[in-house]
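Entry 14: structure prediction run for Putative E3 ubiquitin-protein ligase UBR7. Input pasted below.
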Amino acid sequence: MEQKAEQDQDTSYVTMPDILQEQEELEETSRAVLGGSDEKNCTYTKGYVGRQALYACLTCVPEARGIESKRSGICLACSLQCHDNHELLELYTKRHFRCDCGGPRMPEVKCKLEPRKEEANDRNRYDQNFSGLYCVCHRPYPDPDDDVQDEMVQCVVCEDWYHMRHLDLDEPKSSKDYGEMVCGGCMEANPFLQNYVGKIEDPNKTTLDDTVQVDVTGLDESNVTTAAATATADAAADDDDAEQDTAGPSEPKQRRLDDSKAPAGEEPQKQKEEPAVSLDICTKPVVVADGEKAYKKGAAFWVEGWRKYLCQCKACVELYKKHGVEYLLDEQDTVKYYEDVGKQKHGSNGSAYEQGMQMLGQLDRVTQVDMLTEYNRMTSRLREFLDQFVTNQQVVTRDDINEFFAKLNKERRESGSSGPPPYFCR
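Run finished. Output tokens:
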């Protein structure tokens, strides 16, 4: 019993399944973030890539910490080939960005992959993340002066990262309860998004609760009708409008509000006879004053798939363009889509956890305990080694890590032991 009590108090030991599970989570994150990016070729020639993993090099441009005009970003391949052993800031992913390595923003750097980068990347956006700062508190991550455990989430509009406690939420949110977040500042800058708050509750539904549709064709603005009534009137006026179900690239197709299948026994062609919703019909929800689901100032959390409910009438599309958020209508813009592509690109037969557990099951008890004991010993020594760099505020290089393991192997050889003493059951 005393031995069991000591184990309960000791939270430093781990089990082999714990190690494998942690490794699987790390590999999953790596596949998600890096899998969709090119690790061998600089992305500069591809222009402003829709979404890619980015880094900021503070070794090459140390002024970026304090001078906004000095901020710059490099792609994954350049971080590996041109900035190895440098102090890099991991920026996760950013949209519509072109690599700065060796360009006008980094004139002292020569890109090994794409030496000719004379054109300035005027369309790149450089927020405070490129200086190593985040959230409305403008602090680094991890913050050496903050010991509060808090989750950070990324705004899908400005792409900055925020502490949950700094989003002025009435109640805590779980990462399982939402797909994307728009911070309070971006909600104020794009007020039309406020109309959708509380109106999108179930991604499997094909209708918006409490939604009315407004005729924005230039007629009387007070004339509010349902989509079905207006679409029927349009069809009666001109049968050729049935061909408007397909729109060009500049005019996205308006989503039908009722995509349900025809009832049993009904002829399939009858569903085809339903008139398409006109692009002149706005489906943006109308805000009811003092309504139960009215927008409250602050960040808004959205269920997965919420973007498909955004109105795509001509007026709303122009509104998105005016505010520079037309990417909200592009399903390939989402981080989830990018991560899914990365996971599929690096798919394998079975996860690392499953493979590890299968191999572990083939080992005898003594070997399992030996491996676990050696692992705990190594991680303890590595933690002590890295703590020195944290205390002295130094950057850990690849040479430092290689030196650490070389020293560890030397100690094992000098001790004349290939591992810990045998384990005996009591």
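Notes: Residues 26-134 form one domain. Will compare against the previous run tomorrow.
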